[in-house]
Design brief:
The protein has 152 residues and is an alpha/beta fold. It has one domain: Collagenase (Catalytic Domain) (3-Layer(aba) Sandwich). The chain contains 5 helices and 4 strands, in the order E-H-E-H-E-E-H-H-H. A 4-stranded mixed beta sheet has the order 1-2-4-3. The radius of gyration is 14 Å and the shape is globular.
Length: 152
């Protein structure tokens, strides 16, 4: 797991349904575990309406998705990672149930996934996907979670 990097973390619960279950200290721990650089990150929990609107506006996809990452410094020369990571509560809860995972376990995976995207990781090509999934699995294992890509 990477050494602790300086982290400025803002958490917004536009959709407050998970606020009691997914706490700021948990989120900070998960973000920190996936950081390779100092970072300024905002995590925002939204409902399906806002999630769909953002996905349509920025990705031209007319549905709510589980996580959207808006990375502002993917440059390796950047001194700090800056990103907004949007988590859609409705999709997160539905996927957790479909995958027989706890909401906490699935949220940890999506946060780690989003933070890796913020640092320039991607999964468009098979080789990239394999690298990113390997990192996610390693980070989540060190956080005490199971392999997110194994069937439950």
């Amino acid at each position: 797991m990477p050494e602790k990097n300086k982290l400025s973390l803002s958490v917004q619960y536009a959709d407050p349904r998970l606020q009691a279950e997914i706490t700021r200290p948990m989120l900070r721990r998960w973000v920190q575990a996936a950081l390779f650089f100092p970072a300024q990150i905002t995590l925002r929990f939204v409902d399906a309406v806002e999630g769909q609107a953002l996905n349509l506006e920025y990705r031209q996809k007319d549905y709510a998705t589980n996580v959207l990452t808006f990375a502002y410094t993917e440059d390796e020369e950047a001194e700090q990672t800056q990103a907004d990571i949007i988590l859609c509560t409705d999709v997160l809860q539905r996927e957790a149930q479909e995958q027989n995972k706890s909401v906490i376990e699935h949220c940890a995976h999506l946060v780690v996934h989003g933070v890796l995207h913020a640092q320039g990781y991607d999964h468009e090509e098979d080789e990239e996907a394999e690298e990113m999934e390997g990192l996610e699995t390693e980070i989540l294992h060190k956080l005490g979670f199971a392999d997110p890509y194994q069937e439950a």
